[in-house]
Amino acid sequence: MKEWGRRMKVKISTSIHHFSMESSLLPVSRVSSAVLGGFVLLVHLFFPVRAGALPSMWQVNYGGKLDDSAQAVQQTSDGGYIVVGWTRSFGGDQDCYIIKLNSNGEEVWPETKRYGGKGNQRANAVVQTSNGGYIIAGVTDSTESGMEDCYLIRLDRDGNRVGNDKTYGGSSDDSANSIQKTSDGNYIIAGSTKSFGGQDCYIVKFDSNLQEIWSRHFGTDGNDSLNFIQETSDQGFIAAGWTQSFEGSNRRSSVVKLGSDGSVNWYRTFGGGIHDAAYSVAEISGVGYLVAGVASSPPTGDNCYVRKLDKSGSFIWEKTYGGSGDDAAYSLQLTSDGGYVLAGEKSSSGTNGKDCYCVKVDYLGDTAWEKTYGWSGDDICYCIQPTKDGGYVLAGATLTAAYGLELYIIKTDSKGNTTARQGGPGGSSSRNSPPSYVNPDQIFHLDSGGCFLHSILLTCR
Questions:
Q1: For 81-105, how does the pLDDT look when each residue is reduced to its tens digit (9 = 90+)?
Q2: Measured at the alpha carbon of residue 135, what is the angle toward residues 9 and 259, in degrees to the nearest 5?
Q3: Each residue of 35-81: pLDDT tens digit?
């Protein structure tokens, strides 16, 4: 555990056959808006329990005394989740921050995992290995030159380091923004490099021991970067990012199709506004590709877009989602019904700041449902993944008045529904109030097999 700075979450969770509410040195404002001042409140709760495999739903946030953020989440083979990002809560410098959660959003590892050197590090992506461990990809400036390098960390299933960390790059700044496991048992990262003149797209394929198999860099005469890469059905790769013809010019979304050896098959750019960038791409088998990102064009501001391309990268159609404010899509995943789901941010939802944004789209590109999540401050989601129970898990950051940025992880059902976040809309909004605490010895649990009446004694200091 951290000192008091290690704040565990408050969680209302619903899962198969049970309802549970736990507390451990938590601000009461995150548990119940009905608990006030120094009063003792006796709450009687009565829940009918129905049999059936219902998706688990919860919202949690983790962090320390300073800023922290989640950049990616993956469901693991044991049904839990691995969350990676960065933290400044352990000494001021930015470190890689890694949390393992169980299926109910509770921490599994007894200690928070932080990795890095004397400078700043950030974990941008994660993949689980065949032996149950993990490879983390990101960026570090803990080099002799002080420049940034692509950064790889290998962990076992318990989050312990395996071997030495690995860096890739050259004499200038380099970064890894995405990692995927390939069908031949190896791995590939995509990002950017400034080590070969200008800023180029950068791709490295490596084995399970982090040893390079091949690397490629390519781009225009200006600046280029990749945000996401995925293996395609022909054992090649599709990647998405942005290009900028010259410093200070408008950015355009870029999509590149690569062969199995990293050679460029085709390279396409899209967009004509002030700013256009692609953050995610997925292959539609036998049809083409879906690309998601943000396009900024006055007077509408930033728009969350999805573009459909054919197999040669030619444009088919574009859909925009969101509202009248600034919106963006940072993650796209295909769904089993032939549609897709997006996650990002939305500032047009009627709140004071940005909200996490999730939209489910059918196979025609029409909206099936859309949801926003968050508190009264800014909230953002960088990653979404379908889960084994038919729901979704999202990861990003939430801005709190008391603690700054915190990791924010949301688990939904198939319709994007989740439990009410304590202190959020409809609940207590006392984020700026001095924290009070729940008695850590009180645990509420409704067992399966019928209906029970329980009482919880909440004691405030």
A1: 999 999 988 876 889 999 999 999 9
A2: 130
A3: 333 333 333 333 333 334 567 899 998 888 889 999 999 999 999 99
DSSP assignment letter at 161: B
- Other C-beta atoms closer than 10 Å to the C-beta of 151 total 30
Q: Which of 267, 319, 268 is nearest to 295 (CA)?
A: 319
Q: How far apart are CA 347 and CA 380, in angstroms?
A: 10
Cα–Cα dist 80/309, whole Å: 34
Q: In whole angstroms, what is the distance from residue 208 CA to residue 162 CA? A: 11
C-beta atoms surrounding 422 within 10 Å = 21
Sign of the torsion angle spanned by Cα atoms 266, 272, 278, 281: negative
Predicted confidence at residue 225, as pLDDT, reads 96
What element of type H or E holds 320?
Answer: strand 315-321
**DSSP secondary-structure letter at 250?**
P
Whole-angstrom distance, CA of residue 390 vs CA of residue 337: 11
**99 residue type, one letter:** I
Contact (CB, 8 A) for 404 and 397: no
CA distances in angstroms from 193 to 31, 176, 215, listed in the order given: 46, 9, 11
Q: How sure is the predictor about 450, in pLDDT bands with cuts at 50, 70 and 90?
A: very low
Cα–Cα distance, 170 to 455 (Å, whole number): 62
- Tell me which residue of 420, 433, 334 sits closest to 371, measured CA to CA: 420
Nearest to 386 by CA among 430, 343, 442: 343
What is the residue type of 278? A
Residue bearing tokens 């390079």: 212
Q: What CA dihedral angle connects 234, 236, 242 and 246, to 10 degrees? A: -130
Measured CA to CA in angstroms, residue 186 lies from 16, 179, 419 at distances of 36, 11, 38
Percentage of the chain lying above the pLDDT 70 cut:
76
What radius of gyration, in Å, describes the C-alpha atoms of the chain? 22
Give the pLDDT confidence score for residue 420 in this predicted structure: 66
* Amino acid letter for position 86: W
The residues pairing with 150 across neighbouring beta strands, listed in sequence order, are 139, 168
Quick check: helix, strand or coil at residue 30?
helix
Nearest to 430 by CA among 385, 365, 376, 379: 376
> Which pLDDT tens digit goes with each residue over 250-285?
899 999 999 999 999 999 999 877 789 999 999 998
Residue 138 has what pLDDT? 95
